[in-house]
């Protein structure tokens, strides 16, 4: 008897021969779509519309110069820009120069020798790098929404400080014909971010006279920058450990989560030792500097510990501890995002701020935690005070609540917007055999009681 699968495979080549042209067209379309995807784009299901938008407004054009206002908006729910802050860069298409700036400054003035005898421009670089002014800058150099040291808060954590702005007077390119007065090749100067080409949008409008009159700029161009954790760092920056009151086993962070001890180039500080000042990076920490961490099996700068502390009649209590094992960095305005199915029943959070991230309508299984200002919004470098902790109460849900199969533990944890390494699910703390046996006996008793009740009711009705 002929094998049906063999006959099918015999038919396939004939189908391709009969429809060769359609198959070739399909291949061309497939490869064109594949090549059109940007390899730098990183999609995060917890924040699908996350980006940093640079808005470039042409305000006034005065003969040889024009005034520009540049605004940066952090449209990310839980990822912020921390110190030393953004460093905005671009490439001029012609010979433009920046005559003056307010709210920010260029890091280099560049070669302005052809302007000898005149007031020198603020910056003559072909590829300028712009940094934000620090808080407390002279009033005459400030503009609205400036001078934050390059720090941009996330939208959920601090909506009042997720934007920044500065203003420039730019000298036009002389003797060159360029296709656009917009520069190109924008960069944020932050690890992990890549920026798109400028694209024109509707002109920005401003209200005056209490909203009775509206004015608008000459042109507005936007640049969108997205973040990729893989591009930011080849290794994760945090890991998660687990424990519970019903199991004496503490599940540690997976081994070599952020690096392996003993590998050439890896530096760490043994327990009980204190690093010398010469070992520490410069005070203006940058992400390019390798963190100096305490020696451990995971070698992560940040460890998040989730402990199921207690079970009440209607609630269960969880303790979260974030420990900084990095000797080189304080973590300011930190944030923690947790994915857990029972967060929809969260009742009370102690010592942390909390906000749900409702990304899928009525499904509420993701929440964001962050520190209380001037209390625990700063995690100090490794040491006795290098940790923050909270406890929370979650109401038990009769439909989903159980301690079995690791249900009491989170599915994902992100620190400062980056994914933390979780232990394998088969290592999650489980109920002891006695507890499992007791639960099984309780379930058997419930079934037996229900069947007995049904029999009694049936006999009663049959009389």
Automatic annotation (TrEMBL):
The primary site where this protein sits is: membrane
TM segment ranges: 438-458
- Name a single GO cellular component: plasma membrane
Gene name for this UniProt entry: LOC111480058
- What is its subcellular localisation? Cell membrane
Pfam families, sorted: COB_C, COBRA
Query: Would you tell me the protein name for this molecule?
Result: COBRA-like protein
The entry sums up its family as follows: Belongs to the COBRA family.
Using the record's annotation, list all stretches that form the COBRA C-terminal domain.
Answer: 238-429
Alphabetical list of PANTHER family matching this protein:
COBRA-LIKE PROTEIN 6 (PTHR31673:SF30), PROTEIN COBRA (PTHR31673)
Membrane topology qualifier: Lipid-anchor; GPI-anchor
Keywords from the UniProt entry: Glycoprotein, GPI-anchor, Lipoprotein, Membrane, Signal, Transmembrane, Transmembrane helix
Which species does this protein come from? Cucurbita maxima (Pumpkin)
GO biological-process terms attached to the record: cellulose microfibril organization; plant-type cell wall cellulose biosynthetic process
């Amino acid at each position: 008897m002929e094998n049906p699968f063999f006959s099918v495979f015999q038919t396939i080549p004939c189908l391709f021969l009969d429809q060769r042209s359609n198959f070739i067209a399909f291949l061309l379309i497939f490869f064109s779509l594949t090549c059109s995807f940007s390899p730098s784009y990183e999609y995060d299901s917890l924040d699908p519309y996350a980006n940093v938008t640079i808005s470039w407004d042409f305000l006034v054009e005065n003969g040889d110069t024009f005034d520009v206002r540049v605004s940066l908006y952090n449209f990310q729910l839980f990822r912020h820009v921390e110190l030393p802050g953004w460093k905005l860069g671009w490439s001029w298409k012609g010979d433009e120069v920046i005559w003056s700036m307010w709210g920010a400054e260029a890091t280099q003035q560049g070669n302005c020798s052809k302007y000898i005898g005149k007031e020198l421009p603020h910056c003559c670089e072909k590829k300028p790098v712009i940094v934000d002014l620090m808080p407390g800058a002279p009033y005459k150099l400030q503009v609205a929404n400036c001078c934050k040291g390059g720090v941009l808060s996330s939208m959920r954590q601090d909506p009042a400080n997720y934007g920044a702005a500065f203003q420039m007077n730019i000298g036009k390119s002389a003797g060159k014909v360029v296709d656009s007065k917009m520069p190109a090749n924008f960069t944020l100067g932050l690890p992990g971010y890549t920026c798109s080409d400028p694209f024109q949008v509707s002109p920005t409008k401003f209200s005056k006279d209490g909203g009775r009159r509206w004015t608008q700029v000459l042109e507005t161009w936007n640049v969108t920058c997205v973040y990729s954790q893989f591009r930011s760092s080849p290794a994760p920056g945090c890991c998660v450990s687990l424990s519970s009151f019903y199991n004496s086993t503490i599940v540690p962070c997976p081994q070599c989560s952020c690096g392996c001890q003993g590998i050439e180039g890896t530096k760490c500080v043994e327990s009980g030792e204190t690093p010398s000042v010469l070992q520490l990076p410069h005070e203006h920490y940058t992400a390019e500097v390798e963190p100096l961490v305490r020696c451990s099996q995971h070698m992560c700068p940040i460890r998040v510990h989730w402990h199921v502390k207690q079970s009440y009649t209607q609630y269960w209590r969880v303790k979260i501890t974030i420990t900084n094992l990095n000797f080189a960095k304080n973590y300011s305005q930190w944030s923690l995002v947790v994915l857990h199915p029972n967060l929809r029943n969260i009742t009370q959070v102690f010592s942390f701020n909390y906000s749900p991230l409702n990304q899928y309508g009525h499904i509420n299984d993701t929440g964001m935690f962050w520190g209380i200002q001037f209390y625990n919004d700063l995690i100090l470098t490794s040491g006795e005070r290098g940790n923050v902790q909270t406890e929370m109460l979650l109401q038990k849900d009769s439909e989903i609540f159980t301690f079995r199969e690791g249900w009491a533990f989170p599915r994902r944890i992100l620190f400062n917007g980056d994914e933390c390494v979780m232990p394998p699910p088969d290592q999650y703390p489980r109920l002891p055999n006695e507890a499992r046996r007791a639960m099984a006996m309780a379930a058997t008793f419930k079934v037996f009681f229900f069947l007995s009740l049904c029999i009694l009711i049936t006999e009663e009705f049959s009389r």
